[in-house]
Amino acid sequence: MIDLAGQKFGRLTALREVERAGAARRWECKCNCGTIGVFRQGNLRNGHSKSCGCLQVENGQRVGRTDKRRHGCAVKGAVTAEYRAWRNMISRCYDPGATGFYRYGGRGIAVCDRWLNGAGSLAGFECFLADLGLRPSPAHSIDRYPNNDGNYEPDNVRWATRREQQNNMASNRTVTVAGATMTIAQAARQLGIKISIVRSRIHRGASPEDALSSTRR
């Protein structure tokens, strides 16, 4: 096992291990600015986590100003949905004051360097837009998929509807119906049973399969 205590990772100094679940390990770290947070060991070692968020916010502000000049998606106060999604993604991962930070940056979820600082001649937002494309509809927002606990990076982010995101929630349980594995919510829709009824049955002690039975009361 690797002991990171005392090691430096950018502006972060590892203090102590606070969680271990199989290969997944998290460390409490202190940033040069004095902020203490918890970060995934993998993100520390691969360079995704370099500060409590102060470094990334500084870089994000710099990239944001560059992007406003180059891609036209945030000019004179007119911000597109794609640009807003990108900025909010960075904020919830790196700004401790952002709403929901504890569910993202607070538990070690990071944004890939390509989308933070850009690559080649492209700035961060330009890379994000090139990889994901325009939002398909107003009902879509970005979703980490297929790994809902993974980082924001090209192979793990998509535009998805609210229903698709709910199906991707780590807490969803799956069942097999007619040989196909799906979430309970998907199965309920396929069988024509209200999901509220299914959840009520499970709450009363029924198995997911019994709860999806049309004959059960």
Description:
The protein has 217 residues and is α+β, with helices and mostly antiparallel strands. It has three domains: 1-50, no CATH class; 53-165, no CATH class; 174-211, no CATH class. Helix content is 36%, strand content 22%. It has nine helices and ten strands. It has helices at residues 41-46, 54-70, 81-94, 113-117, 124-132, 162-167, 184-191, 195-203, 208-211, and strands at 8-9, 12-21, 24-31, 36-40, 74-75, 78-79, 140-144, 157-161, 174-177, 180-183. The strands form four sheets. Strands 1-2-3-4 form a four-stranded antiparallel beta sheet. A two-stranded antiparallel ribbon has the order 5-6. Strands 7-8 form a two-stranded antiparallel sheet. A hairpin with a 2-residue loop joins strand 1 (8-9) and strand 2. Helix 2 (54-70) packs antiparallel against helix 3 (81-94). The model is unreliable at 61-70 (pLDDT under 50).
Helix-strand blueprint:
Blueprint: E1 8-9, E2 12-21, E3 24-31, E4 36-40, H1 41-46, H2 54-70, E5 74-75, E6 78-79, H3 81-94, H4 113-117, H5 124-132, E7 140-144, E8 157-161, H6 162-167, E9 174-177, E10 180-183, H7 184-191, H8 195-203, H9 208-211
Antiparallel strand pairs: 1-2, 2-3, 3-4, 5-6, 7-8, 9-10
Q: Give the helix/strand class.
A: alpha+beta
- On the 0 to 100 scale, the average pLDDT is 78
What can be said about the biggest beta sheet? 4 strands, antiparallel
Please tally the β strands and state the result: 10
